[in-house]
Amino acid sequence: MKKILLIAVTSVALTGCAAIEKWIPSFWDDNQSAKIIDIRLRAHNIQCDTVEIQKTHADGLVKDIQWFLLYSESKGALQKDVIRLVEPMQQTVGDWAKRTATGEASKAYCEIKKKVIIVQADKAANSVLWRY
User: Fold this and answer.
1) 8-state DSSP, 25
2) 3-class DSSP state for residue 131?
3) Residue 62: in which H helix or E strand, if any?
4) Is the pTM of this model over 0.70?
């Protein structure tokens, strides 16, 4: 009976530890901090005058976000918190980049996306920079 109880307690404890791992915050990283500021700077400097200019900005953001995500994934499982922060921005920028690639991005569309991307970049930067 004691063995069964021990097995049950052990399995519950191990399952609980696996669930907790995704909530453990990652630690400070100089490279992530520098890149998230690069992303934030690009977001604040988006210009919406022409589709060609929009495409240049969108493509640059796509590359910077891809770098950030690949770097974070390469660091391991404890980086899931920062990955969750940046993935929505990746989706927003990806949608905008697709529109600019086909020439369908209007100035108004760009202005709306710019506002959303700035909010996402500011929040992500704030979270990444306040880690220990």
Assistant:
1) P
2) coil
3) helix 51-75
4) yes
